[in-house]
Amino acid sequence: MMNVLVAGGAGYIGGIVSQLLIEAGHRVTVFDNLSKGHREAVPEAAAFVRGDLAHPEDIAAAMRQARPDAVLHFAGLTEAGESMQQPARYFRANVSNTLNLLEACVNAGVGRFVFSSTAAIFAANDALISESSPISPANCYGETKLMVEKMLKWFHAIHGLRYAALRYFNACGAVGPRGEAHDPETHLIPLTLRAALGLRPDIAIFGTDYPTPDGTCVRDYIHVADLGSAHLKALDYLDTHDTITCNLGNGAGYSVREVIDAAIEVTGKDIAIRETARRPGDAPRLVAASDLARRELGWVPRITQLPDIIGDAWTWMRAHPRGYQP
Ligand code: UDP
Q: Where do the H-state alpha helices sit in the chain?
């Protein structure tokens, strides 16, 4: 049993991981400013501290309350497209606020840190992307995550902070009462399902002239339950290892068009498609080789078929058409 502070534990992935941590017997304190997260996503059995990573005194108060052995850090801005319009916001939220959290971890003697990194640090690659593939973010969001990976390296070297940097490919799906609810929503699967529900007229395809088989971008869609299990394994891994930086994906690439087709199949609804220009900052293809996570963490993704992943998202969306709003 560990005391775990979960920064961003009211968000999509953070809420689900908080629940898994509780089920595994850990004592969880969620720290979140609720700017993007939802109080309803925080498990009932977790303590909740409302605070902001921009304010070191808020973090210090949370540390005093949680007395964490480990910190999991999900708090941050997550949208590649938006980061290309508002870079300062992304650097402040994702880099400067994470630095506050890292400093607080060192001050409080926290031993382990698990960080949500991203596939967006990679240059697009025709092959599967391994940890040694070329790193070259196509957008500001990816750059902010890469900067934190670099900070972690030095905090380990200098302060001995043990860490796992987990590079998520495209998180999707839902687990029980928790699912994806961003406002505004920008992600492909929830937007497509909103169109299926009739909550929007259509789904836009951002660019049909990419160097991919059907001209639309290819991504690796990974179920949030599988991302969740990787966090628990990473936390255990840091019992006996100093650091790990690894990709988390299924290794299967699906184009935007294939995702929409699968959603039409799963929902049985007609979904109107509108082809538009490219969205700045999108890499053509990001698909993971996750051998390192499988080998080192013993991680095995369980829900790997796109129809099952979309099916879980669809079940959640039909039950929560307005997200967490009543
Ligand atoms: N996308 C799209 N239409 C939308 C939203 C997304 O065509 O309304 C595309 C986007 O350009 C990217 C892929 O879907 O190629 C996945 O985008 P998302 O924002 O879900 O995740 P990202 O890969 O940016 O993290």
A: 12-23, 56-66, 80-83, 87-90, 97-108, 140-159, 188-196, 224-240, 256-267, 291-292, 306-319
Give the pLDDT of residue 89.
98
Domain containing 36 equals: 3-172+222-248
264: in domain? no
Mean pLDDT (the chain, rounded): 97
Q: State pTM to two decimals.
A: 0.97
Tokens of residue 90, six digits: 């992304």
Q: State the distance from the centre of ligand 1 to the C-alpha of 188, rounded, in angstroms.
A: 5
Ligand 1 centroid, distance to 184 Cα (angstroms): 14
Q: What is the widest separation between alpha-carbon atoms in the chain?
A: 56
What does the pLDDT look like over 268-280, one tens digit per residue?
999 999 999 999 9
**Structural domains in the chain (count):** 1
Ligand 1 atom closest to residue 203's alpha carbon, by position in its atom list: 8
Best of 188, 276, 287 for a ligand 1 pocket test (most atoms within 8 Å of beta carbon): 188
- Please tell me the residue having the least CA distance from ligand 1 atom 5: 188
Out of 141, 163, 168, 210, pick the active-site residue. 141
Cα→Cα distances 20→139, 233, 304, Å: 31, 11, 19
Q: What is the pLDDT of residues 22-58, one digit of tens each?
A: 999 999 999 999 999 999 999 999 999 999 999 999 9
Q: Is the CB of 208 under 6 A from ligand 1?
A: no
Q: What is the pLDDT of residues 93-125, one digit of tens each?
A: 999 999 999 999 999 999 999 999 999 999 877
Residue 63 lies in a domain: yes
Q: Which pLDDT value is given to residue 125? A: 75
CA-CA distance, 305 to 250, in Å (whole number)?
9
CATH of the domain at 226: 3.40.50.720
